[in-house]
Amino acid sequence: MFSYLGRSKSSDVETMSQCSSVHHHDRAYSSHSGDDGSFGTIPKHASSYGLPTASPLVGLPEISHLGWGHWFTLRDLEMATHHFSATNIIGEGGYGVVYKGLLVNGTEVAVKRLVNNMGQAEKEFRVEVEAIGHVRHKNLVRLLGYCIEGVHRMLVYEYVNNGNLEQWIHGAMRHHGTLTWEARIKVLLGTAKALAYLHESIEPKVVHRDIKSSNILIDTDFNAKVSDFGLAKLLDSGESHITTRVMGTFGYVAPEYANSGLLNEKSDIYSFGVLLLEAITARDPVDYSRPANEVNLVEWLKVMVGTRRAEEVVDSNLEVKPTTRTLKRALLVALRCIDPDPEKRPKMSQVVRMLDADEVPNREDRRNRKSRTTSMEFESVKDTGSSVGDEISIIRVEDTDSIAPSSSQPSCSIAGASLVRPVESVKVFLICLPSMNRDRTGSWGMIGMLRRGEKPMYRKSSDIKLIFIHGGT
């Protein structure tokens, strides 16, 4: 039996009011995620805000309690869903059908009835679900229990209201208003914290396998609740898994996973990068209604950034656009997440730090940033002297804390960024490709000082990845 060993290392996100999260927002609706983004919406019931919140399992038969949740009988769930009535369906997709249910103690739940039993025998299903049942994080939809009876396999989740990110960006919730930039980042930051917890804070770690906008539920305070992790894959530390059946949704699936079935947490990180681009642009990952060169969101975005048209990709429905600095930061984080080489993608804990860096700056940061330029541009230097024609990126950084949190983590530098600030001299570092070292961690080191107006000198070698210029003496 797997055991739950870790606690969340993430800090809570500050609560945002609904009025600051949505332009022209009037009332909230409830939903639960299915698998293909098609969902019903149900009017939100009267709030019990301010009253003590009881456990959703209080009042259920004690004999059915597990160590972490509840074992439901088929009859329990038939009664809760009016015998799985079509009127109770709130979502459906490749994994199964989701029903809204009402337990005998009055708790609203979402019941996912799996199709094809996911090819799992009872023992395998029970082991995996019970391991995941111990997972607790404020940004994860809580798995309340399950049902195994005959051929039936069902998962019971808490019921989260206020729609999901897909509905707010593309679908049923848009007529309530446009989700603000701040609300989008709050949802994405919560999602990143949930994934960092699953990947790095518990053992065995959990790979979600199906990160997408319709699986990011949103509560009434616009906190993210990642759903469907009950169908995730458990992996021991450092382990990858080869599967013949690729799970996930077209457009979000990492290329190495789609091509070879190689699964590890880097697959989720790629999907998160696509999710971040989707939130920035309000475009579907794959949209065949668009011109041929815009069908694939990832490829189109790379072209737009590469031709210095980054500010044109922002959702045109946003009434208040993000600053250039904030937009470029979000885009650079996304581009790191969707790197074709899985080894170059950041950990989710790094993504959390990068996304959170500008959200709640301390007073000293605010004072310092008033005198700093916020221009950012992408540049690269072609090493025409090298036999392999390497492209060497030059980074000039005015605020090293925002891009490289500490000198011990140069890998947090974002290739291609240039924050220009006139200084008398700068420190120059050389960062080499991960392939140089057996542990694939790369190498770096200070190679000298550079005076204003001087150009950096570097050796011509295929090992050079980028030159990092520290914006201070």
UniProtKB/TrEMBL annotation:
<keyword id="KW-0418">Kinase</keyword>
<keyword id="KW-0808">Transferase</keyword>
<feature type="domain" description="Protein kinase">
    <location>
        <begin position="84"/>
        <end position="360"/>
    </location>
</feature>
<dbReference type="InterPro" id="IPR017441">
    <property type="entry name" value="Protein_kinase_ATP_BS"/>
</dbReference>
<keyword id="KW-0812">Transmembrane</keyword>
<dbReference type="InterPro" id="IPR011009">
    <property type="entry name" value="Kinase-like_dom_sf"/>
</dbReference>
<keyword id="KW-0597">Phosphoprotein</keyword>
<dbReference type="GO" id="GO:0004674">
    <property type="term" value="F:protein serine/threonine kinase activity"/>
</dbReference>
<comment type="similarity">
    <text>Belongs to the protein kinase superfamily.</text>
</comment>
<keyword id="KW-0472">Membrane</keyword>
<keyword id="KW-0547">Nucleotide-binding</keyword>
<feature type="binding site">
    <location>
        <position position="112"/>
    </location>
    <ligand>
        <name>ATP</name>
    </ligand>
</feature>
<dbReference type="InterPro" id="IPR008271">
    <property type="entry name" value="Ser/Thr_kinase_AS"/>
</dbReference>
<keyword id="KW-0067">ATP-binding</keyword>
<keyword id="KW-0723">Serine/threonine-protein kinase</keyword>
<dbReference type="InterPro" id="IPR052232">
    <property type="entry name" value="RLK_Ser/Thr-Kinase"/>
</dbReference>
<keyword id="KW-1133">Transmembrane helix</keyword>
<dbReference type="GO" id="GO:0016020">
    <property type="term" value="C:membrane"/>
</dbReference>
<dbReference type="InterPro" id="IPR000719">
    <property type="entry name" value="Prot_kinase_dom"/>
</dbReference>
<protein>
    <recommendedName>
        <fullName>non-specific serine/threonine protein kinase</fullName>
        <ecNumber>2.7.11.1</ecNumber>
    </recommendedName>
</protein>
<dbReference type="Pfam" id="PF00069">
    <property type="entry name" value="Pkinase"/>
</dbReference>
<dbReference type="GO" id="GO:0005524">
    <property type="term" value="F:ATP binding"/>
</dbReference>
